[in-house]
Amino acid sequence: MNARFARIAVVGAGPGGLICARILQVHGWSVTVFEREASPSARTQGGTLDIHATTGQQALREAGLLEKFHELARPEGEVWRQLDPFTAEVLVVDEPADGQAGRPEIDRGQLRGLLLDSLAPGTVRWGCPVSRVVPLGDGTHRLLFEDGMAEDFDLVVGADGAWSRVRPALTDAVPRYTGVTFVGTGFDDSDTRHPAFARLVGNGTMSARSGSQALTAQRNSGGYLDAVAMFRAQEDWYVTAGLDFADTAAVRAHLLAKYDGWHDSLLYLLRAGDRGFVNRPLYALPVPPAWDHVPGLTLVGDAAHLMPPLGVGANLALVDGAELALALVAHPHLDAAVRAYEEVMLPRAADLAARTAQGLDHLLPPEGAPEPAPGARGFEA
């Protein structure tokens, strides 16, 4: 069918889905975004993202949002410091050459707000969780919602993340545990309440690692420090340890014992985090991501190619969403546009997924693997 008049549904109001909708609307197209969250403020959006000049920023440029992005972004947040875990000595400082920031930071919530504000009112239907997608046999698909309602579309774009409800209509691939867990915490008003630790972190990110363990802290906007303990463990490690994450004191004591021997100034992030602890096991889709083309259906971002969070995910989601929208605008026929998008996206995702898997092993080496040299920041897109 003529792509220009297609009924298009985007499932998921994350970066990939929102930028796809934005670019379509810039070109005068109609699109509806369905989001399971009840409102934009239903939950916090997590920490900070580095948006790369050649990927995420290029997508924002196509959406006409790059200038507004730079008004919110923090170029100083690009500075990265590696510390010795046992002495807290600064081993490496990585910062932009000649002050040319190529990966400025922005809070996830700020990026989402920027994209949401750029859409026509009513584009996003909040509180509309999709349960599954049903093919109708003619290249169209029916969205079934958890409340029992249904709507039909000529193109359904799955932008609904790791546990996508759209993906099963394309492939039986499911995320698998990588063997690595992040446990997050953080500090409010860091400059005044935690001045020594704030100085240790600097303006961007601090990392210390030994073997298969690491501690990181990253500055967000508003004086907030996001902190993460990273380690290799069984997926149910906290069950084996008899931990309940509602018991902050018990989780804190367990982590302090796990990092026993690390410098006291680094252990401060485990002692002083004032937002409790959140368990975040890392999952990834099988490599390479692949599926047989299905007319009227495709995926962007983590729904298509969930991979370890090493600075690639948000950038790739933005590129996916932008390229899909631009392909739809450029091709007169809907199916040709989706095929053109997938022919570029899938090989790129396969390459990056393989490299991020290697990067995770470099960041937190499996047992018996050699320790990475100081200054090896890990995977970079």
Automatic annotation (TrEMBL):
<feature type="binding site">
    <location>
        <position position="50"/>
    </location>
    <ligand>
        <name>FAD</name>
    </ligand>
</feature>
<dbReference type="Pfam" id="PF01494">
    <property type="entry name" value="FAD_binding_3"/>
</dbReference>
<comment type="subunit">
    <text>Monomer.</text>
</comment>
<feature type="region of interest" description="Disordered">
    <location>
        <begin position="362"/>
        <end position="381"/>
    </location>
</feature>
<keyword id="KW-0560">Oxidoreductase</keyword>
<feature type="binding site">
    <location>
        <position position="43"/>
    </location>
    <ligand>
        <name>NADPH</name>
    </ligand>
</feature>
<keyword id="KW-0547">Nucleotide-binding</keyword>
<feature type="domain" description="FAD-binding">
    <location>
        <begin position="297"/>
        <end position="352"/>
    </location>
</feature>
<feature type="domain" description="FAD-binding">
    <location>
        <begin position="8"/>
        <end position="76"/>
    </location>
</feature>
<feature type="binding site">
    <location>
        <position position="108"/>
    </location>
    <ligand>
        <name>FAD</name>
    </ligand>
</feature>
<feature type="binding site">
    <location>
        <position position="302"/>
    </location>
    <ligand>
        <name>FAD</name>
    </ligand>
</feature>
<comment type="similarity">
    <text>Belongs to the aromatic-ring hydroxylase family. TetX subfamily.</text>
</comment>
<dbReference type="InterPro" id="IPR043683">
    <property type="entry name" value="TetX_monooxygenase"/>
</dbReference>
<keyword id="KW-0503">Monooxygenase</keyword>
<dbReference type="InterPro" id="IPR002938">
    <property type="entry name" value="FAD-bd"/>
</dbReference>
<comment type="function">
    <text>An FAD-requiring monooxygenase active on some tetracycline antibiotic derivatives, which leads to their inactivation. Hydroxylates carbon 11a of tetracycline and some analogs.</text>
</comment>
<keyword id="KW-0521">NADP</keyword>
<keyword id="KW-0285">Flavoprotein</keyword>
<protein>
    <recommendedName>
        <fullName>Flavin-dependent monooxygenase</fullName>
        <ecNumber>1.14.13.-</ecNumber>
    </recommendedName>
</protein>
<dbReference type="InterPro" id="IPR036188">
    <property type="entry name" value="FAD/NAD-bd_sf"/>
</dbReference>
<keyword id="KW-0963">Cytoplasm</keyword>
<keyword id="KW-0274">FAD</keyword>
